[in-house]
User: Fold this.
Amino acid sequence: MTHLTDLPLWAAIPVCILLLAGSAVTLVGSIGLIRLKTFYGRLHAPTLGSSAGTVLICLASMITFAVLQNRWIFHEVLIIVFIVLTTPVTLMLLGQAALYRDRIEDSEVVPRKAAGETPSPSEADI
Amino acid sequence: MNELLVIWSILASQILLGLAMACALFRVIRGPRAQDRILGLDALYINAMLLLLTFGIRTANSIYFEAALIIALLGFVSSIAFAKFLMRGEVIE
Assistant:
């Protein structure tokens, strides 16, 4: 079994930098989730963590395991690909659901549909 | 020297990710409407997945990677189900 203390200095420095950068970017995104005022503004904030944060921390993990086990490791690419593919789908669906709910309530913050058109669930695109 | 560097930077990044999870949890609890809570939950599971990856680096154990992958898969499905529920009132039509 390998240990983290076997990590040489030339590998430890990039791992530390990537870890700290990734978690700092994730924290900035999550603070944006608190600070931004409207839902449609908040929808953008956590993508910082799910794109840059995930890529940086997965790279740190790849470097660590590749150096410790002395071979190329590509498992973390799975997580990167999966998160990068699924986050836009989730947030687009969530934004559409929020838009639909706001239109049902005749909210002032969202633009209305053209006259004569009433929003109904069957018209909303998937 | 270098083990100290790695240990402390992993600890610092775990604290930062913990704070990020706390921010997302605040949005889940406080969120004025249901879509805010779902957005907070989405951010929460991604932060938890990143925290599991840092645990994996700390213990040099690849079992945490599989847990992170499962969280990524199931979190996506649950967020989609919640968004569909908000839009239509039912998950499976």
